Amino acid sequence: MLILAATPIGNLADASPRLVEALTAAKFIAAEDTRSLLKLANSLGIKLNARLFSLHEHNEGDRITQILEIATDETVLVVSDAGMPTVSDPGFILVRAAVAAGVEVSVIPGPSAVLSALAVSGLPTDRFTFEGFLPRKQGDRRKMFAQLAREPRTMVFFESPHRILESLQDAAAVLGAERQASVSRELTKKFEHTERGSLAQLVEWAKGEPKGEMVLVVAGAVAEVVKIEDLVEQVLALTAEGAGLKDAVAEIASAAGASKGDLYQLVLERRKADKS
Fold this sequence. Notes:
- This protein is of the alpha/beta class.
- The chain has three domains: 2-111, 3-Layer(aba) Sandwich (Cobalt-precorrin-4 Transmethylase, domain 1); 114-218, Methyltransferase, Cobalt-precorrin-4 Transmethylase, Domain 2, CATH 3.30.950; 228-275.
- Helix content is 44%, strand content 18%.
- It has helices spanning 17-25, 34-44, 60-71, 92-101, 113-120, 138-147, 164-175, 199-206, 228-240, 245-256, 260-275; strands spanning 2-5, 28-31, 51-54, 76-79, 105-108, 128-133, 154-159, 180-185, 193-198, 214-218.
- The strands form two sheets. Strands 3-2-4-1-5 form a five-stranded parallel sheet, with helices on both faces. Strands 6-7-10-8-9 form a five-stranded mixed sheet.
- The longest helix has 16 residues, at 260-275.
């Protein structure tokens, strides 16, 4: 069988007794980074007696046959560098193949950056969606936010510290500066901190160049009648930041379910009025 085991996302004290027992007893371990696994074992004061396999995004496809052959008769423990394997980490392809091959898959639950950030965000937790890592390029990020503009559930994203400011600025431009959100950094670690407020407020906070692993949580959209005048302002905000007019109109109109032609005409009229 395969056992997916969650590892600490920061604080080593979060390692469960089941994880420690499984690591100690395992004969075979597939790890995202074997060096990180050995470091974790050393920090927990345990000795590994397992045969180790690397299982990362670049070799997962090539490892499947080898690992499944072992898992047919033995137990293979699967771990990532932090948190639960398969959740924005390697393991999904392996699990899918194991299920197809009739190999049992079990889990040792544990720390989760997604659930931790959601729990402390102060935003609704009854329904949420995890969107993984935000795209690196601004155009792709804005397209993603536009697609989620009317999503009613709370949304959770991963982001790196050196892009958090740009991502918050894009979110504010597309979703609206007053949309409520939170950013949790260094979860479970010594300098853990969660900043809460509107996207506009979080943009100002991020200008201080916060460090550490980031989890962005954004409130879902509230069903309301959108005024066309508000959409014009959103288009103008995007164009002021360098977006092309047609692209900005298409992005905002799509997110609001409005007519691109009507919105485009209103923006042109607004620009003409501003010049006169």
